[in-house]
């Protein structure tokens, strides 16, 4: 049975996947490189510089190291403007109750987000104290789709990977969870999240009793 749940953040607990997309689209338009929602799908879960590298690679455009740093910083500024007013009202429906019910059932809770903004966002959403461990994205050697971030959270929670349920909205994230040897619950479209063990459309459909033994 599941003893811990390790959540992705953006697009799982709150609607920031859309914010990341909007910020990348704005930057891509300014750089005059092609970008759209379909290309963005493959960037979900990918860290900031990795995302920029992919956008540039697709366009054939090259930037100097300094230009890349500037562009990544500019995108982050757009993103931070979008989340500046986030509050507990921006949690997806059902998230707070789900976290409280999971804790009451004795599960450990972790966050495995590639975002350097995760601690700030979790604080604004008013839920940071509900987690036993939040990964420090800057300290993880290999980014998603590598399993490192999920393994690092499992270790911090002291729960073996097969007893950790990973919850993700991104292809890269589901690949990372499976590579970590964990069951994967996808949030989104089953036609996209094909590697997930199970897919639901929205976190409000999460049924805790499917994963834990009734007390
Ligand atoms: C998450 C999002 C990605 C984002 C990454 C880095 O994984 O799904 O879209 O690029 O975090 O976020 P950051 O806030 O550090 O730029
Ligand atoms: Mg995500």
UniProtKB/TrEMBL annotation:
GO BP annotation list: carbohydrate metabolic process
Transmembrane intervals: none
Organism this protein belongs to: Niveispirillum cyanobacteriorum
Residue(s) at site: Important for catalytic activity and assists the phosphoryl transfer reaction to Asp8 by balancing charge and orienting the reacting groups: 113, 144
Residues the record lists as binding substrate: 8-10, 24, 43-48, 51, 75, 113-117, 144
Protein name according to UniProt: Beta-phosphoglucomutase
Residue positions of the active site: 8 (nucleophile), 10 (proton donor/acceptor)
Keywords: Magnesium, Metal-binding, Plasmid
Recorded GO MF terms: beta-phosphoglucomutase activity; carbohydrate binding; glycosyltransferase activity; hydrolase activity, hydrolyzing O-glycosyl compounds; magnesium ion binding
Residues shown, of full length: 788 to 1002 of 1002
Amino-acid positions noted as binding Mg(2+) in the UniProt annotation, renumbered to this chain: 8, 10, 168-169
Family recorded in the similarity comment: Belongs to the HAD-like hydrolase superfamily. CbbY/CbbZ/Gph/YieH family.
């Amino acid at each position: 049975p599941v003893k811990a749940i390790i959540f992705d953040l953006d697009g799982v607990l709150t609607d920031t996947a859309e914010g990341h997309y909007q910020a990348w689209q704005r930057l891509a338009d300014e750089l005059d490189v092609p970008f759209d929602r379909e290309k963005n799908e493959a960037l979900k879960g990918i860290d900031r510089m990795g995302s920029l590298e992919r956008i540039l690679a697709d366009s054939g455009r090259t930037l100097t190291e300094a230009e890349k740093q500037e562009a990544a910083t500019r995108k982050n500024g757009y993103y931070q403007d979008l989340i500046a007013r986030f509050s507990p009202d921006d949690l997806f429906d059902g998230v707070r109750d789900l976290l409280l019910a999971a804790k009451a059932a004795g599960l450990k809770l972790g966050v495995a987000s590639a975002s350097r903004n995760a601690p700030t966002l979790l604080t604004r959403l008013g839920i940071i104290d509900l987690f036993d461990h939040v990964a420090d994205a800057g300290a993880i050697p290999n980014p998603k789709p590598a399993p490192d971030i999920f393994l690092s959270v499992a270790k911090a929670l002291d729960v073996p990977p097969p007893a950790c349920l990973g919850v993700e909205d991104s292809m890269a994230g589901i690949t990372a969870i499976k590579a970590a040897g964990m069951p994967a619950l996808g949030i989104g479209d089953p036609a996209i999240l094909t590697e997930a063990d199970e897919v639901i459309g929205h976190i409000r459909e999460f049924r805790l009793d499917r994963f834990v033994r009734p007390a």
